[in-house]
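To the wet lab folks,

You asked to see what we're planning to order before we commit. Fair enough. Below is the target structure as tokens, and below that is the sequence we designed to fit it. If anything looks off to you, flag it before the synthesis order goes out.
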């Protein structure tokens, strides 16, 4: 989500060059009225960019059409549909992205490295999809609800392998054959622990049932959204890369939101092990988003900066929000991840001390030492929630660095989201703010002292 255009914020000529100093008499006299100084605009919360900017972002990526596909329900009895559908959409967009890169006519493009990075992104996505499928089949409440087809099925209307996905066709094209074949082998390996496979043309050596990929993903409808509203007036090959990259990111953000909603339901139902599984999946999605954003480092500097000017997606001179904050769903998912901290007392079965006492800290210490055998699922959940925090902060930090490298630190600093150290923007504040779980952090700190001093649990 690298910003496509912004203006440098010029300092106001009326602003004093130095901050006003207080004299000794001003400090000592309580009746002296101090001049009102504007407080820095630092907040503990994040918010989306201005509505017109968010609307332009949605329009460029054709998100209204994508959201319609994400939210469509074709299989009411399949609980995982709302999560797996956007994940499969992101995977199919990746196949389209690979085809675009392989068709790139620019002689100066680094085709070899492009192939490697997109293959890596596809493999990461397949790994997460396999985790979702495996967790679903291990749950007795959802086992067997996935729409699958058997190889021996005599119904001609149900195909056991996809006929509309791009991956099988890429496996036959001389330019993409080696990359596509490795991706198919990744599908075979990652789906090994699941009772069915994706049906993209992988070997399927075990002869397992295959997901009705075409009915779930509907690749033709996904590929119909490959064009941008500006294709008729922009001739820039990086336009396709930017468009595909952000569509992949938005698809996985939507899947994360559905997972976070399910995590809340699992915690309410005291299904802590299930909540931990979904938390670890969300953590991996944040890591995937970090890798997808690194794709911008491969884009040609001249072509990308030209595209930024061609699209003319300008911020106002007062707009200091980073470009990623134009994704309203990213902001919402970020808040949902941070709000997981409010579920810690419920998990530990303890009420928050209104006087600020160490109730939660003590309960966590007892769980880690005395009750971890009977309450291991709680330990797993707390670890997974802290893993989400680490992965999310790492995403925003990596995004900040990618922004400076791709745009140039000077221009990035003009919007206060570059390499400045003042921490005045929301992006910088995201990874500089203290831990979301101070009680868990304190519990581990005291446990470290406890074991270092060879104490005994009282």
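Sequence we intend to order:
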């Amino acid at each position: 989500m690298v910003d496509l255009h912004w203006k440098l914020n010029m300092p106001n000529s009326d602003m004093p060059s130095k901050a006003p100093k207080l004299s000794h008499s001003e400090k000592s006299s309580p009746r002296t009225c101090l001049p009102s100084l504007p407080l820095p605009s630092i907040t503990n919360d994040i918010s989306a960019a201005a509505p017109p900017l968010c609307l332009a972002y949605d329009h460029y990526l054709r998100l209204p059409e994508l959201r319609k596909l994400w939210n469509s329900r074709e299989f009411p009895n399949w609980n995982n549909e709302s999560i797996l559908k956007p994940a499969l959409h992101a995977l199919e967009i990746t196949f389209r992205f690979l085809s675009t890169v392989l068709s790139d006519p620019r002689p100066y493009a680094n085709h070899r490295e492009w192939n490697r990075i997109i293959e890596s992104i596809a493999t990461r996505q397949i790994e997460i999809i396999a985790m979702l499928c495996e967790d679903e089949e291990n749950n007795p409440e959802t086992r067997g609800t996935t729409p699958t087809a058997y190889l021996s099925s005599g119904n001609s209307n149900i195909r056991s392998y996809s006929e509309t996905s791009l991956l099988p066709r890429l496996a036959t094209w001389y330019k993409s054959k080696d990359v596509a074949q490795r991706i198919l082998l990744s599908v075979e390996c990652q789906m090994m622990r699941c009772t069915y496979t994706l049906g993209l043309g992988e070997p399927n050596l075990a002869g397992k049932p295959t997901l009705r990929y075409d009915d779930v993903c509907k690749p033709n409808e996904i590929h119909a959204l490959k064009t941008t509203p500006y294709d008729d007036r922009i001739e820039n090959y990086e336009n396709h890369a930017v468009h595909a990259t952000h569509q992949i990111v938005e698809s996985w953000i939507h899947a994360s939101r559905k997972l976070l909603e399910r995590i809340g339901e699992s915690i309410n139902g005291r299904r802590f092990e299930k909540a931990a599984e979904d938390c670890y999946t969300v953590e991996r999605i944040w890591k995937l988003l970090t890798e997808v954003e690194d794709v911008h480092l491969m884009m040609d500097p001249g072509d990308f900066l030209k595209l930024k000017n061609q699209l003319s997606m300008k911020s106002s001179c007062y707009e200091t929000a980073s470009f990623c904050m134009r994704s309203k769903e990213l902001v919402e998912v970020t808040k949902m991840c941070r709000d997981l901290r409010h579920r810690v007392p419920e998990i530990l079965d303890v009420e928050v001390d209104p006087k600020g006492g160490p109730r939660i800290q003590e309960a966590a210490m007892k769980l880690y030492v005395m009750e971890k055998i009977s309450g291991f699922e709680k330990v797993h959940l707390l670890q997974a929630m802290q893993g989400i925090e680490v992965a999310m902060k790492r995403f925003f930090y990596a995004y900040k660095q990618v922004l400076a490298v791709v745009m140039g630190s000077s221009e990035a600093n003009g919007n206060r989201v570059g390499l400045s150290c003042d921490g005045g923007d929301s992006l910088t504040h995201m990874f500089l703010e203290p831990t979301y779980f101070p009680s868990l952090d304190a519990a581990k700190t005291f446990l470290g002292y406890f074991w270092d001093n060879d104490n005994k649990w009282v």
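Structural context that might help your review: The radius of gyration is 25 Å. Residues 4-43, 417-422 have pLDDT under 50 and may be disordered.

Thanks,
Computational group
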